[in-house]
Specification:
This protein is of the alpha/beta class and 319 residues long. 35% of the residues lie in helices and 16% in strands. The structure holds iron/sulfur cluster. Iron/sulfur cluster binds at residues 30, 32-33, 41-42, 45, 49, 89-90, 120, 145.
Length: 319
């Protein structure tokens, strides 16, 4: 049985076939790295800003699209549809004109049925959200990093924003998007100083907001990060795999039934992972997560309590 609403199932319901997300590196910056807020970045962020680094290697957007879509077409066969995912760094950072020219470069990409724009909650305003909402495609996702609903944790990992900033961005995107923008929140388990209860409280905090999707991540200790320093100093110990599996199973149960689960775990880039070693075994981890859901007989939404006066989350036409 389907224990949670996976992104692949959401796409099949909407488009009748596979839709492959294509990660794109647009050479964007980040206010948490360029000195606007800080030069240090988030404690877990690798120097590539969770991206491929292809932009700095001279690959423009069409070249990256060509590279990845050919690869996925060979791998999966048939004629998959694609969704352009602006993944690296904070893609709405900087002037509006930069974002509009970036979106203009995505519109003509062959086979592109939608976009996902990754950014920070403090890099959005009405004009930028309107530009995203007006993108000519059926499926528009705004991927917002939150990681934790605890402001003391956000300060500890140098996020440079608060939970209130995130909630404000979600509400503004909902208002400006008028049903066109789906919001995906990125959450992280195993943050320094946090317990399972803190992680689950963050999951619960989403219930009061018009959020349509989540990405669940286990914290990775990556090369060149503040987490590497803490880990080497013995000041941070990553989660064990079984503990993460418990957290994911309990989180899924607490999600609203129509929230799309984009990810169950982080996906380390080649060469970046220092710890925990189990995070490199993607297949084994996925099997362990699914097995734990089976053992606990978890079904998405079983432990979800709708907040009173809940704002409608579902954009028009959502499958
Ligand atoms: S906001 Fe994103 S890109 Fe910027 S430092 Fe944090 S994780 Fe990295």
């Amino acid at each position: 049985m389907k224990r949670y609403l996976a992104l692949s199932d959401h796409f099949r319901a909407r488009f009748g076939r596979r839709v492959q997300k294509i990660p794109l590196d647009a050479g964007s910056g980040c206010p948490n790295r360029d000195g606007t807020l800080s030069n240090r970045g988030c404690a877990f962020c690798n120097p590539l800003g969770s991206g491929s680094g292809l932009s700095s290697q001279g690959f423009d957007i069409p070249a990256q699209w060509d590279h990845w879509t050919k690869r996925y077409t060979v791998r999966h066969g048939g004629a998959p549809l694609f969704l352009a995912y602006l993944q690296s760094f904070s893609n709405t950072h900087g002037p509006l004109a930069r974002l509009t020219s970036l979106l203009a470069a995505l519109a003509p990409l062959p086979g592109c049925v939608g976009i996902a724009v990754g950014t920070r909650p403090d890099c959005l305003d009405r004009a930028k959200l309107a530009a995203i909402a007006n993108f000519p495609a059926e499926e528009i996702w705004l991927e917002l990093g939150l990681q934790s609903a605890r402001d003391d944790t956000l300060a500890r990992i140098n996020r440079g924003h608060t939970f209130a900033d995130f909630a404000r961005a979600v509400r503004l995107a909902t208002e400006v998007g008028e049903g066109r923008i789906r919001i995906c929140a990125h959450l992280m388990a195993g943050l320094p100083g946090e317990t399972e209860a803190d992680f689950l409280a963050t999951v619960d905090a989403l219930a009061g907001l018009p959020v349509h999707g989540v990405k669940l991540h286990n914290l990775l200790v990556c090369r060149g990060t503040e987490m590497e320093r803490l880990w080497r100093a013995g000041e941070y110990a990553p989660l064990e795999r079984d503990a993460y599996a418990d957290m994911v199973a309990r989180a899924v149960a607490r999600l609203a039934p129509d929230v799309v689960v984009h990810r169950l775990a982080a996906d380390p880039a080649p060469g970046e992972l220092l710890a925990p070693a189990w995070a490199a075994d993607r297949r084994g981890l996925r099997a362990a997560l699914l097995a734990r859901m089976e053992e606990l007989d978890v079904v998405q939404g079983a432990a979800w309590t709708p907040p009173t006066g809940e704002t409608a989350r579902r954009p028009e036409g959502a499958g």
